[in-house]
Amino acid sequence: MALTHLARSRRFRERLGSGEPLLGTQLGLTDSTVMEIFGRTGWDWAVIDCEHSAQTPQTVTHMLQAAYTSEIVPVLRPPCLDHDLIRRWLDIGATAIICPFIETAAEARQLIDACQYPPRGRRGWGPRRASDFGLSTPAYLAAVAESIAVLVIIESAQAVSNSAEILAIDGIDGAMIGPMDLSIDLGVFQQWQAPEYLDAVERVRDAAAQTGKAFGAGAYDEQGIAQCIARGESLLLITGDEPLLTSAAHTLAERVRGLIAADNAGSGDADLR
Q1: CA distance 219 to 268
Q2: Are 149 and 172 in contact (CB under 8 A)?
Q3: Which pTM does this prediction carry?
Q4: Contacts of residue 19, Cβ cutoff 8 Å, sequence gap at least 6
Q5: What angle do CA 106, 174, 19 make, to 5 degrees?
Q6: I need a labelling partner for 166 at 20 to 30 A (CA). Which of 17, 44, 172, 272 fits?
Q7: Strand 22-27 versus strand 235-240 pairing type
């Protein structure tokens, strides 16, 4: 790797800090080819979802290897705030973490502790693959502190209330809204126009602006991402590999079945356009 993964992540942090809109997605499928496809089609970052998928240390390693064939930045999403898991992902080469259910400033501080070596944090030493298997140990230690990107997911009413304090923690680079869990917690599941939900999103957006941190509300379609762009968001997280594949497969199947039905009815002018 020659520590190019650290340089790429450091550039990712710089771009986030400048407010540049960065296109990202979320990967739940475990085949590393998916990461290659998103990387080669120009996406800036991709979350490797270890919270809701069948990802393992081995599949994560393959995902990281695939990411390094392009310019895409892989961002690890652990199941929870777990120092041991986060250390493992960092040791095998991850350079960016997005942690779910961070609800207080104390938890945000614990997240930084898990990602940084002393004196900035409490991460234990053991970067195997991350340091080129020991070939670049001094260079890794010298560069890693400024290279690890750390994001939080805000997905509860408590987290919204504490969002300014969370984002004020040194080392936290930005926050994403967790739309599903936040809407559940607010009692308006998937009601994206509900006043309670919109108010919560705006509170986190304001907190990000006040602290100079990156922000993203997330989107599930092109219209949603257009709204995110118009609002100046830098963390443009749109859909994921599973919903994209599901939607495309379902849409094509429905269209083809429509063609079959039209042909059976004697219509000869149906096509796939």
Answers
A1: 39
A2: no
A3: 0.94
A4: 214, 232, 234
A5: 155
A6: 44
A7: parallel
Residue 239 phi, psi (nearest 5): 45, -145
- Give the Cα separation of 190 and 212 in Å (integer): 29
Assign 222 a pLDDT band (cuts: 50, 70, 90). confident
- The sheet carrying 149-154 orders its strands as 214-216, 174-177, 149-154, 96-99, 73-77, 45-49, 22-27, 235-240
Which CATH architecture describes the domain 4-240? Answer: Alpha-Beta Barrel (3.20)
The sign of the CA dihedral 157, 182, 32, 225 is negative
- The residue extents of the domains of the chain are 4-240
Q: Which of 5, 52, 62, 83 is catalytic?
A: 52
pLDDT at 3: 87
**Annotated catalytic, 5?**
no
Tokens linked to 257: 């079945």
Distance, in Å, from the CA atom of 151 to the CA atom of 173, rounded to the nearest integer, reads 6
Model pLDDT for residues 34-89, shown as the tens digit of each residue: 999 999 999 999 999 999 999 999 999 999 999 999 999 999 999 999 999 999 99
Phi, psi for residue 235 in degrees, rounded to 5: -90, 90
What whole-number distance in Å separates Cα of residue 229 and Cα of residue 219? 11
Concatenated DSSP letters for 75-136? EEE-SSS-HHHHHHHHHTT--EEEES---SHHHHHHHHHHHS-TTT--PPS--TGGGTTTTT
For residue 238, what are the CA distances in angstroms to 109, 184, 200? 28, 20, 19
CA nearest to 126, candidates 144, 102, 108: 144
Q: What is the pLDDT of residue 267?
A: 61
